[in-house]
Design a protein that fits this description.
By secondary structure, the protein is an alpha+beta fold. Helices cover 19% and strands 45% of the residues.
């Protein structure tokens, strides 16, 4: 039995054992193996018959084999307990009515429910090919912007191996002070896949919003301008209270 875990979940499953991937191509062909190399247009897969190279444009989905671990039911229970989010994508416009914010997305991006794994995660979004992702997290925090960023990045360091912060800068998003952080690392238990991120931290009183966009590192250079546009497009349409939203049934 296979459970769909497209690449969007690589960041979330860093603590799980490495599993074989099943790759489905647009012509219906299924290939089972381990990804051993990724470039901007090809993915190399080690199979029982040797290595094969696939064009990224030919790939429909990538899934990971169910490992039968007791953790799976727990994850399902967590999903069921998450508060419902009233959200919609129309063209390139994402609107979250629950938390009262919007984002402008690239064409053919969609809501990705697999990315929502905690009450503070308000949005999970991904490209059609499931190779590029964005997430919006929001929570109340009594400290400063720098303190919130440091606490959040400590959690990231525990998830990513070979963590490296690449750049940090001040910004203004939605008329509010923000910090942009570029960083990268590898998912050790997911075949050491290199992943690169852009995270924007936005402060509104004691409510902090973190908008993250990421992809596998070889794709990041081309995607960086697009990711910057996504995080810069964040706009609120009313009062936001992370604590109040997370308590809604």
């Amino acid at each position: 039995m296979l459970r769909s875990f497209t690449i969007c979940l690589l960041f979330s499953i860093a603590a799980l054992p490495a599993l074989a991937e099943e790759i489905v191509l647009k012509d219906g062909t299924k290939i089972v193996g381990h990804m051993t190399g990724i470039t901007s247009d090809k993915i190399e897969v080690e199979t029982s018959y040797g290595k094969v190279q696939l064009n990224r444009g030919d790939i429909m989905t990538i899934t990971f084999a169910e490992n039968g671990s007791a953790k799976a039911p727990d994850a399902a229970a967590v999903k069921q307990a998450l508060p419902k989010i009233d959200e919609i994508v129309t063209g390139t416009q994402y609107v979250n009515r629950t938390a009262k914010f919007s984002l402008t997305l690239p064409p053919e991006w969609a809501i990705d429910p697999n990315l929502r794994n905690s009450p503070t995660t308000l949005a999970g979004l991904s490209s059609k090919d499931k190779m590029r992702f964005a997430m919006v997290i929001q929570e109340d925090y009594p400290g400063s912007m720098d303190s919130y960023r440091e606490v959040t990045m400590l959690g990231v360091r525990r998830t990513l191996s070979n963590f490296e912060e690449l750049a940090r800068s001040q910004a203004t998003i939605d008329g509010k002070p923000a910090i942009l952080v570029f960083y990268r690392g590898t998912l050790q238990k997911s075949n050491n896949l290199p992943v690169e991120f852009l995270s924007a931290f936005i402060q509104s009183g004691n409510t902090f919003t973190k908008i993250s966009a990421w992809c596998i590192e070889p794709l990041f250079h081309d995607m960086q301008p697009t990711f910057e546009k996504i995080v810069a497009s964040y706009r609120t349409s009313g009062h936001i209270s992370a604590a109040a939203d997370s308590s809604k049934p």
